[in-house]
Amino acid sequence: MARATYLAGISLAAAMGALAACTPAKAPETTAATAPAPAAAPITLPVSINEVMVALVDHASEPLWQDSYQAPTTDDRWLEVQYNAYQMAIAGKLIQLPGQGPNDSEWVADPDWIIKANEMSAAGMQALEAAKAKDVDALNTAGDRLVEACESCHKKFKPALPSMGVYKSPTYPPPR
Fold this sequence. Notes:
By secondary structure, this protein is mainly α. The chain has helices spanning 2-22, 49-69, 75-94, 104-109, 111-133, 136-157. The chain has a domain at 49-157: Four Helix Bundle (Hemerythrin (Met), subunit A) (Up-down Bundle), CATH 1.20.120. The chain has six helices and no strands.
């Protein structure tokens, strides 16, 4: 009889195990650690793209072009070229974000705007590499690339609106 009770107990345990295997598993509870992250809000510039262009791009591009004609002769001047090249590389990405200007959303939605902005960044990176190498010829090539990027963009997007009335410092860039 003990053997029968033992076998009945084993059979009951096996049957319960089989039933448990057929029951659908509970979905894991969502915790703060596993909850999906909320969607990030779109990034919008607090100023117009034009204001970014005048304050950042003009500020960095003019000295880069000047340095193409009058090459830096000191380590400090080459560091300044690097600084301006960083600004150009960053600006090309920054102007891909819409700002507060009347044309900003339209511009950043145009694939050609993105291509031209990326070209500005690439020219900035090329100027940065030239500055790090203290290579005047490479800096001239980067400056030419930057001119082409800027002119082609202005021809399409701002043919008659150079600064749209945004103040540009009359003392910048400083005389060399």
